[in-house]
Design brief:
Blueprint lengths: L1 E6 L2 E5 L24 H6 L2 E3 L13 E3 L3 H4 L16 H7 L5 H28 L4
């Protein structure tokens, strides 16, 4: 494990381990730090996937990944509350049941705004042919 302090209230912690499921074609780990107007949306809607087995409800690891257009392009239907997506950081926060109802409502609307912001940016980049 490696850790270093960035700001008074922020520390970066990296845990290193071998994982046979990672793409073996990569000769090194690539890390990108994002500092732009989409950083909050990218990090908040990041995918969270837990391993299939746990030790008494606790996991030794968790997999995080960037959301795709498929993840954020949720359908909307009349009279149904729009989705903030599935398997993402904010939805994981809801599942922990540590927020008041008021906090959940504020977070829901903020997450919805972030999901839509990220979806629109992904669609715009796709139209420009940035990703092929």
């Amino acid at each position: 494990m490696t850790s270093f302090q960035i700001l008074d209230d922020m520390k970066i912690i990296a845990i290193h381990y071998n994982d046979e499921h990672l793409d073996k074609r990569l000769s090194k780990i690539n890390v990108t730090f994002i500092e732009n107007e989409l950083s909050e949306a990218i990090l908040s809607i990041m995918k969270v996937v837990y391993p299939k087995t746990s030790n008494n409800g606790e996991y030794d690891s968790v997999y995080l990944g960037g959301a795709t257009l498929e993840d954020v392009n949720q359908p909307t239907a009349p009279l149904i509350r729009p989705s903030i997506g599935t398997n993402n950081v904010i939805l994981d926060t809801f599942k922990r049941n540590r927020l008041t109802e008021e906090e959940k409502e504020k977070l829901y609307w903020h997450a919805l705004k972030l999901r839509i912001q990220l979806r629109d940016a992904l669609i715009e980049h796709q139209k420009k042919g940035v990703w092929g």
